[in-house]
Specification:
Largest sheet: 5 strands, mixed
Structural class: alpha+beta
Bound molecules: dinuclear copper ion
Radius of gyration: 20 Å
Helix content: 10-25%
Number of strands: 10
Order of helices and strands: HEEEEEEEEEE
Distance between the termini: 66 Å
Low-confidence stretches: none
């Protein structure tokens, strides 16, 4: 079979790209421990406020430079524990983020960080992130949830 030179180059390029990406996925999954959210932790969306985690949303220190951040989402608001909707996190802190929704599906993205989750009624979404850079970050809803979707936001201040 006679194959054109460019065809050979293209087949090589395609195979090499596939190999590179499979290797990256493998390193990410097995070496760095990245995995999709388990969605294993459930709660009753009707009684979110009675759940121990979500009684008092906000930032709590749980260890040496380690924090638990709890936020309750609902249409069209993030309850972060204060009416100003501002969370102050010390730079370099390890933060375990837990959030859920009391009504429809919402998004949970802290723009400029790796925190990007979907909040589904009945499930607790969690993500652990270390905030290495000081600055102002915006928590936004990135799942269309209704007429007030664009109003859902809060501010995260990472301070020295
Ligand atoms: Cu909540 Cu979009």
């Amino acid at each position: 079979m006679n194959m054109h030179k460019y065809e050979k180059i293209w087949i090589f390029f395609g195979s090499a790209t596939l190999l590179v990406f499979l290797t990256l996925v493998g390193i990410s999954a097995f070496y760095m421990g990245n995995k999709p959210p388990s969605c294993a932790v459930t709660l009753d969306p009707e009684t979110v406020r009675e759940h121990a985690l979500f009684k008092e949303p906000g930032l709590k220190e749980i260890g040496d430079n380690e924090y638990q951040l709890t936020i309750v989402a609902s249409a069209f608001d993030y309850d972060v524990g204060n009416p100003e909707k501002v969370i102050e996190i010390p730079k370099g802190a390890k933060v375990h983020v837990s959030s859920t929704t009391t009504d429809v599906i919402h998004g949970f993205e802290i723009a400029g960080t790796n925190v990007n989750m979907m909040l589904e009624p009945g499930y607790i979404s969690t993500y652990t992130n270390t905030f290495k850079n000081a600055g102002t970050y915006t928590l936004v809803c990135n799942e269309y949830c209704g007429v007030g979707h664009h109003l859902m936001s809060a501010t995260i201040e990472v301070v020295e």
